[in-house]
């Protein structure tokens, strides 16, 4: 997952909203979904001209600002024009995708947003990315790095950014029967105004159905252990009603998990079809006592090993299986290898003289 793009995009949006004249600034997105699964996605930033001029002053020139936008998103069609009737500047970025899968990959990689477009429903949610004991301040740090020479500007941006108006619009190929957004007169367009009605997850239903099929997990399997961060996506023929991670309702169908520990994920759709998986992330090698790497001993050694994460999978001494609590007294060179169920390994070479 490339999170650098999403941070850069955020910085540019922030850079646009320079100064104290934030009233009237807005960010909107429009998605048009076709029956053949192709779609277009457009972002529009409406900025008061006075604010835009402050932005240009920071970038140095209009061309520099345009080049920066294009460098953030090279595949986008970028346009910048004046709206004389409202004394504002409109910046647009448009993408065209051949299918919904390409659109989903783009949104995950660029915006940390998961899009799910099925025959019966549409949903959009933020990727769930918990980090124990840490607060995500990366954007504020990068903001200070970008505009650190202007402390007044940085302070203004941090305090005023929440005033920005955000709106998401999606045009569907068929009439919408139920949604947590506002259906327009054509019956196919839904608008979510996140300033008026913030939601962790946006959804729209087109058809009522119950296939009796439970949700499906991709990226993790029940009973398995992993020694790396993992990405778990949840697919369902019916709209998901709830996703629980270790007892917490996360409102997301895409999970990026990196902290060590045991995970229990339960996904339930609107018809109460449910599926649960339990797995573990363990990035710590087993603990060994009694011998140390590259040490030489003159007496017998009592070897013990343990693993509090995924548990011991296998241990060998010079290629032969060994149990914890074994005493080694014969003279010679030894290699102890201890592995856990997640694939972590500790290897120790020692000698008894």
Please provide a written account of the structure.
With 353 residues, the protein is α+β, with helices and mostly antiparallel strands. Residues 1-24 and 135-139 have low confidence and may be disordered. The radius of gyration is 27 Å and the shape is elongated. The chain is 19% helix and 42% strand. The protein has helices at residues 3-16, 49-59, 62-72, 100-111, 138-147, 151-160, and strands spanning 26-33, 39-48, 77-83, 88-97, 113-117, 121-126, 165-171, 178-179, 182-183, 189-193, 201-205, 216-218, 225-226, 230-235, 240-245, 248-249, 254-257, 261-269, 274-281, 287-289, 295-297, 301-306, 312-317, 320-321, 326-328, 332-340, 345-352. The protein contains six helices and 27 strands. A seven-stranded mixed beta sheet has the order 3-4-2-1-7-10-9. Strands 13-19-18-15-16 form a five-stranded mixed beta sheet, with no helix packed on it. A five-stranded mixed beta sheet has the order 21-27-26-23-24, with no helix packed on it. Helix 1 (3-16) crosses helix 5 and helix 5 (138-147) runs antiparallel to helix 6. A hairpin with a 4-residue loop joins strand 3 (77-83) and strand 4.
